[in-house]
Specification:
With 423 residues, this protein is an alpha/beta fold. It has two domains: 282 residues, Crotonobetainyl-coa:carnitine coa-transferase, domain 1 (Rossmann fold); 86 residues, formyl-coa transferase, domain 3. It has 17 helices and 13 strands. Helix 1 packs across helix 6 and helix 6 packs across helix 7. The radius of gyration is 25 Å and the shape is elongated. Keywords: Transferase.
Amino acid sequence: MTTPTSSSGALAGIKVLDLSRVLAGPWCTQMLADLGADVVKVERPGVGDDTRQWGPPFLKDAEGNDTHQASYFTACNRNKRSVTIDMATAEGQALIKQMAQQADIVVENFKVGGLKQYGLDHASLRALNPRLIYCSVTGFGQDGPYAERAGYDLMVQAMTGLMSITGQADTEPGGGPMRVGVAVIDLFTGIYASNAILAALHVRDNAVNGTGQGQHIDMALLDVGMAVLANQAAGFLATGQTPGRMGNSHPSLAPYQDFPTQDGNMLLAIGNDGQFQRFCAAAGQPQWASDARFATNTLRVKHRAELIPAMETVTRTRTTAAWIALLEDKAVPCGPINTIAQAFDDAQVKARGLAVSLPRWKDGEAGDGVQHITGVASPLRLSSTPPVLRNAPPALGQHTDEVLSELGLDAQAIAALRENKTI
């Protein structure tokens, strides 16, 4: 694999062989791709990544009709090149091994031991390329009693206790455990994996004490799910008390939740006593700030049952926009509870350029009529080497001939591989 001349960014010159699919692995490799790495995604011929079919919703063609390409795939596969190779064949395995010999990084999310039968496991590829950084993403890790189990985001949200602290309390309408609205464990695993890969690159290539050697990175959704419990886990480990669901309230802060307004709802995120005092003055209720029950955050948490209903009576007297206008210059965190459509229409979101449209291929090459795809910009803002969003998520096998040519195969050899269905 060679890095395209158009590639730039902090990771320009780094080559990634992406054997992952669905979300956690692809989220990791998309971050590396955004930072300039050349990421080649290997997909199953004729089928591709599972998420290409995870719809609706589907991408629209120029006439506004649904295509067969699910939008799910586009969330985590931009800036990559797609090749289709059947790794169950000897010829396919040979091609992937050749790619691994030229790569810096491999990312895969097969079951533990799943790639050994193809000679594409960590030990086999490191024998070919000792500098290779090999990142395995699994549900439960490379060891332990659950190691061979398949793991999915929703399962891990349930197992780690995340669902037990998400949603309304059992005593409230609609109470019960609730998953988070996006696959947060997959996403966090992708982020943790990319951090681990960058650390391994530094250890390998550090001019002062670099080892020159790659290493195996063992990323487990379960481990990440436990880690991102953060303060909730810390609280349990400190006290032995199991936290429960509190809806949109915060276990350690008050008032820090949604409030009804004259025309809907708003979010107040008051994190210290000064903010509470300024809110009380602006709301025409200065006595709350001096009330012995509410003078400090700890007291407000203790007496939230008295404070919150009193506040709700007052917040219903103005519209959401009026509250925001009243508080925005007083350093009191307050905002609307937007739909995703409203969020993309927000002035700050627009100013930051968070919706980006990227070309998918040259005119005339489209197989399903989709030539541009709009996605969310990278949130990484590096002043000297910012992310470079070069290309939209690729069509299935869009770059197969290109990548194989870079491996030294001529048109006749590529045609023969296509004829025997290796690619």
